[in-house]
Here is the input.
Amino acid sequence: MNIKSFRQNALKAFIIVFLVLFPHFVPLPFYSYAVVCLAVIIFYLRGYKKTLRDLGLKRNGLTFHTFFAGIISALLWVAFNKWVYHPFITHFFVVEPYTEYDFIRNKLSNLIITIMAAWIIGGFYEEIVFRGFIHKTIQEWFKKFRFSFLFAGLLTSILFGVYHWQQGIFGIVPSALGGLLWTLLLWRYKGNLWYPIISHAIYDTIALTMIYFGIVI
Here is the structure.
């Protein structure tokens, strides 16, 4: 590896660390950290004459099928969490009630605002950061390996789980597993980032709506 490649990879590694840690340690109001983090990614890409399309945000990638696949995968993921994961952890462990989104319970205006944020942050922003920039970067680092895509997906999903550490271990694990689901969609649809974006956003919408009605997920 020459000096130029080393510097470029070191910068990528620094950006990954920044993307994972900055939102937690610089408490900007109402998800505004996403503006800063997206700006970092965009400026980095522009430095190499690239755009978000190079991360998988394809121009014609948003279709009826994208939403159909997003709905089906989101419903399957809700079902897994509702009838497999949650019963399992509550059977074997003492799980503290999840209260992060209690402010939306029976408050329609809060629900609507939070769902809008979920589409922008949970769907669009987080998928660009994780299944887009971080996944693609790790895959490039290990491109000589046969299973570089899956390996990158595994590491990215672990980072995605850790990114949700404020939810505790019982939030980290399903977040990492969700990351694997959205990696699978990325692989199945040939790097089209719109599929995990829509699936992630729809899942968050369903989960938030269930919280609103007091349904445990």
